[in-house]
Structures are given as structure tokens and as C-alpha cells.
Design a protein that fits this description.
This protein has 102 residues and is mainly alpha-helical. It has one domain. It contains two helices and two strands; from the N terminus they run αββα.
Length: 102
């Protein structure tokens, strides 16, 4: 059982992170399916992210290639950075409302 509210908050945060990981997995499933169907014997597929419109100066691309796992991790980090705090706050509020504490 939880000893304090901090443990409850940490449990909610872990649950939200798993939810965001699931979303990132769902976003990359079509790529995985295509890879398995058409390139099952090939080595890990790399995705070229070069933006050829901005090839000079500060706008030159910093990342050119990602593997499928790297792409999934980038998506997960973007989702986590954008939504983690708000989702944890919202789920905490929902829990408190269910417990009729607010």
C-alpha cells in the first residue's frame, strides 16, 4: 500500500509513462509491419530525415538517419515532454474526485 501521497503521484506518473509508450508503439507499428512484410531478411531499416530544403548554415540537418527503435524513442520523448505533467495532474485530480476529497 502507499505510505504517502508522493508514492501515489509516482505511481500515477509511471502509469502515464506506460500509456505514452503505448502511443509511441502504436505510431510506429505500421512501419514495423511494413518492415516485417517486405524487408524481413534485411538489416535494421534506417529512415533518412534529411531536409534537403535547408542544407546550409544553421539550418543544416543535425540528424540524418534513425532506426525504428530510435524513431519510437524520439516519439515517446516528444509525447512525454509535451503531455506528461498535464496528464499526471489530470489523473491525480480524477482520483481525488473519485475519492470525494475535493
Amino acid at each position: 500500500m502507499f505510505k504517502d501521497t508522493n508514492q501515489v503521484h509516482q505511481a500515477i506518473e509511471r502509469r502515464v509513462k506506460k500509456e505514452l509508450e503505448g502511443i509511441a508503439d502504436k505510431m510506429t507499428q505500421p512501419l514495423t509491419g511494413m518492415h516485417e512484410q517486405f524487408y524481413s531478411s534485411a538489416c535494421i531499416e534506417h529512415y533518412d530525415l534529411t531536409d534537403y530544403r535547408h542544407m546550409e548554415g544553421e539550418n543544416a540537418p543535425k540528424i540524418n538517419y534513425l532506426t525504428k527503435p530510435q524513431l519510437r524513442n524520439v516519439l515517446y520523448k516528444m509525447l512525454k515532454d509535451a503531455y506528461l505533467l498535464e496528464m499526471v495532474e489530470n489523473k491525480s485530480k480524477e482520483l481525488l474526485e473519485k475519492l470525494e476529497l475535493i
